[in-house]
Each structure stands twice: as structure tokens, then as C-alpha cells.
Design goal:
365 residues; alpha/beta; Cobalt-precorrin-4 Transmethylase, domain 1; 5-stranded parallel sheet; 4-stranded parallel sheet
């Protein structure tokens, strides 16, 4: 029997090489800096209480149940967090049908629709609901207003996990509005009671503009009882608005699928930053961005641990940006209890860490 050996060359991937950075002197020679170098560090930044709660929920589940622990979608939208939890034994899946029957499944901080909850029950999965309580609030509003005969205009990014979950509470009476540009073509039944709700991680300014345009078209549009955009999103955007006008460059630490992180970059540019970039890690910062730059603004999205910000600050110090001024615009002391499904086992093991929140962000005194 003859064996055919292909003469076609086999392409072998080249190993990735460590990035060689230009020195501080080379960067400054390319474009001299006028003025003293400094960093404007936005506060609040980083972890919010809902993210903290969700991440700790997975950590505690791994600690007390042991791996593997399954998580539907990313627990929060941050590469470092997800990769760290994977190393500890968390398995991230897209849908419940990827989870072996009878296993433990954690719902992410972004929330899920009733259909997903039912699917987990159908597979006899034990579940821990790590949905941020502020997202749960919007879900409850959607259910309540639907029962009271309202059509819901849900302002948010179609396809985002949070929007999918909220929409799934009352799909027959909910219309998604992606932004101001969609208002003119919006069609809703006449004479219906209308109310708007929103994704919790949107641009505050853009959401207000969307609502303004909606009210021009539908004067009877009603407001929800309280603002749906969460405190952490609002606070981080407010802080970056203070930093941006003074910054030649703004670095936002966060992942590209993190809505609130992406919004920080947009807000920085809108409010006067000459340049703004989103990076997951310090290694992604291009030193060419420092050419001619005197002032660098730094912030991070609500799903970003502080350790990643500190890595960026160390890199900046290597390039002469050692002076740090913290721009503080709010204090955060929000605390959320861990998911109710976890509390009995934590009590049984004498673990008193049942009320946590805001880890990773230094709260000013």
C-alpha cells in the first residue's frame, strides 16, 4: 500500500515576540513635549459594586463547590477577570445547552431573560443569579409596566446581553431604541401608554438626547420612577468630563465589549481630549501616543480591577509621567449582598463575606 505525502508546504505559525518599545528619549526626540509631564487620574474609576458582587460570587462558588463552575456569557466584560477565573476552574459558555445536566451555572452580572432561566430549569441546572441589582431593578420595571398596559421604549444597544435580558421580560410590548438616530423612524401604535427604560451603561448625554427626541415625537411619553443608568456609569463619565479638557491623551482601561468603557472613550473625546484610547492592558499602550503629550488622563471602566490601572501608571512613569493628580468627583460607598443562592453555604462554612461591593477602587475619605 502506497502512502501519499503531500508536497504542499506546511505553514507553521511564528512564535509571538515580545514587543520592543522605543525609549523615553527616542519618543521625546520624535516630538518634544511642551510643559511638565503629569497624569490626571480620574476618580471614581474601576470596579463598581455590581461587578464586585458578580466576580466574588464566582470566586466563592469555586471555593465552596469546587471546579468546574459554569458561567453563562462573560461574568463581566473584562478579559483579565475572565481569564483569571478560567485559570481557577470557571468555564464560560454561551448558552445553557452547553452545560452538563445537573451542573452549577452562574448567570452573569448583565442579567438573563425568563427564557434563559427556564432553559436552565429544563436542564436541571443549579443556578446562582449574579445579575447586578441595578439591572434587576430595570427588569422589574419592565414587568410592572407591561402588566400595567404600557409600551416600553428600551433605550440600549441591540444585541448587548443586558438589553437582551430586559427585552425578554416583555418582548411583545418592548421596542428597542439604539440611539437618537432611530427616533425619527420609530413606529409605535397610537394612543398607547408609553414609558422609556434604558440600559444601565449608556452615555448619560446621549440617553438624555434620545429621550428629548422621543418626547418631541411622543409628548405623552412617561419617565421611569428613577434613572436607569447606574451610579457607577454616571460617576465615571462625570469624572472623565473633568479630566478630558486638560488632557492631550486619555487612556481608558477596559475591554472593547464593555459598554461603559467604550462610552468613557467617547465622552473623553466629546469633552475635549485631543486623543483617547481604550486598552485592556499596559502592554497594549503604544508609546507613539506619548509624542508631544504633556498631560495624560487615566480612567477605567466599571468592570476593571485596579491592578490593571496601576500597571498603566507604572508604564507612564517609565516615560516621565510620574506626577499624578487625582481628580475626584464623587465618593462611592454602595454595597450589595452576595446572591441569595450562595448565602446558605457561606453561612454553613462560617464565611461572613455576605455584603461586599466596590472592591478595587479607592474611595476618597
Amino acid at each position: 500500500m502506497s502512502t501519499h505525502v503531500s508536497s504542499k508546504p506546511v505553514s507553521m505559525p511564528m512564535p509571538s515576540m515580545p514587543r520592543v518599545r522605543r525609549s523615553r528619549e527616542e519618543v521625546e526626540a520624535a516630538a518634544p513635549v511642551h510643559g511638565e509631564k503629569k497624569v490626571l487620574l480620574a476618580a471614581p474609576r474601576g470596579y463598581c459594586a455590581g461587578v464586585d458582587r458578580a466576580v466574588i460570587a464566582v470566586e466563592k462558588a469555586l471555593e465552596h463547590y469546587g471546579p468546574p463552575i459554569y458561567v453563562r456569557k462573560q461574568i463581566v466584560h473584562n478579559r483579565h477577570v475572565v481569564e483569571t477565573l478560567e485559570e481557577r476552574g470557571a468555564i464560560f459558555v454561551e448558552e445553557t445547552d452547553e452545560v452538563p445536566e445537573g451542573s452549577l451555572l452562574v448567570f452573569s452580572a448583565h442579567g438573563v431573560s425568563p427564557a434563559v432561566v427556564q432553559s436552565a430549569k429544563d436542564r436541571d441546572l443549579e443556578t446562582i443569579d449574579a445579575t447586578c441589582p441595578l439591572v434587576t431593578k430595570v427588569h422589574r420595571e419592565a414587568v410592572r409596566f407591561a402588566k400595567n398596559g404600557y409600551r416600553i421604549l428600551l433605550i440600549g444597544h441591540e444585541g448587548h446581553e443586558e438589553v437582551e435580558g430586559t427585552y425578554g421580560e416583555a418582548p411583545e410590548v418592548t421596542t428597542i431604541v439604539n440611539g437618537p438616530e432611530e427616533v425619527a423612524d420609530l413606529v409605535v401604535p397610537e394612543h398607547e401608554k408609553l414609558i422609556w427604560l434604558s440600559q444601565t451603561t449608556l452615555s448619560v448625554d446621549e440617553t438624555l438626547e434620545t429621550v428629548r427626541l422621543l418626547r418631541e415625537r411622543f409628548p405623552h411619553l412617561e419617565n421611569p420612577p428613577s434613572d436607569d443608568i447606574c451610579y457607577a456609569t454616571s460617576n465615571r463619565q462625570h469624572a472623565i468630563k473633568k479630566v478630558a479638557p486638560q488632557a492631550d491623551l486619555v487612556l481608558v482601561v477596559g475591554s472593547t465589549n464593555s459598554s461603559n468603557s467604550v462610552r468613557l472613550v467617547e465622552v473623553a473625546l466629546e469633552y475635549g481630549a485631543k486623543n483617547a484610547k481604550l486598552v485592556d492592558f499596559a502592554r497594549e499602550v503604544d508609546e507613539a501616543w506619548f509624542e508631544g503629550v504633556a498631560t495624560v488622563g487615566v480612567s477605567s471602566g466599571a468592570s476593571v480591577p485596579e491592578v490593571l490601572v496601576q500597571e498603566v501608571l507604572r508604564l507612564l512613569a517609565d516615560y516621565g509621567y510620574g506626577e499624578i493628580e487625582e481628580i475626584v468627583t464623587a465618593e462611592e460607598d454602595i454595597i450589595f449582598s452576595l446572591p441569595k443562592e450562595l448565602r446558605p453555604i457561606l453561612r454553613a462554612h462560617g464565611d461572613e463575606s455576605r455584603a461586599l461591593g466596590g472592591r478595587g477602587t479607592k474611595t476618597p475619605k
